Amino acid sequence: MISKSGQSAKTRRPCSADFDPDRSDRPAVALHVDFSHYEAEVPQHRHPQGQLILALHGAVTCTAANGLWIAPPDCGVWIPGGVPHSNRVTPNARLSYLFVEPGAAGLPLECCTLSVSPMLREMILRLADVPGGHATDDHTGRLVRVLLDELALMPKEGLRLPVSSHPKIAAIAAALTAEPGDRRTLGDWAAHVAMSERSLKRLMVQETGLTFGRWRRQLHLVIALRDLAGGATVQRVSGDLGYESVTAFIVMFKKALGTTPMRYLRTPGGSG
After folding, report:
1. Which residue has the higher pLDDT, 230 or 196?
2. What share of the chain in percent tops pLDDT 90?
3. Phi, psi (deg, nearest 5) at residue 128
């Protein structure tokens, strides 16, 4: 277990250099990260290996490839090798990183959030506790082969928020990310960015693939998962997102993910 005990919150250090493994002949390596000892923001970087970021506690959001992905407990964000990305974690986050060598498994070629079964989770934790190297035909080598086979079978979760570099869409996204309870309409935002409502509607779909209403609901879902996993109450999250009642928020959440917020966060793999 990686530990930097004795460091106070005031002296939290950057973590990207500590957790960037060298290339090796091992198809996969894993390690633990307790973010009580590290800065919450990991600036943009890349790895030659693919990386699965698994949330054991708390949550992590990852920005990469025109999207933002959320990994609440028992889900993982998969980032193919060579893709620039940045991460932000909740203050209570404990993560496991799994680095997979190129071509070692049949994994997605694009970033995504993967459901992680309890068995796969335990295998990743076991691998992170193994010191040093291993041979392909020893116990750890066999564990890695099964682990990678299982990982390739994990289903994708719909926890991506499309982002855009278009300045007007980016301005709206930044404003709503900073103040997610802002309930201005599409027409209000069109006036704000000096466009017609019709033009902004078309641009939003062109840039994100979603209507403005669907995009904002997805933003709310990502923020809700992050904050709930970080310890916020349903009541607080509902209020922060501008819902008129807790019931209205729960209805939105259940429609998107098939279960209530608390059941979702208590269920291994994040599915009802």
Report:
1. 196
2. 59
3. -65, -25
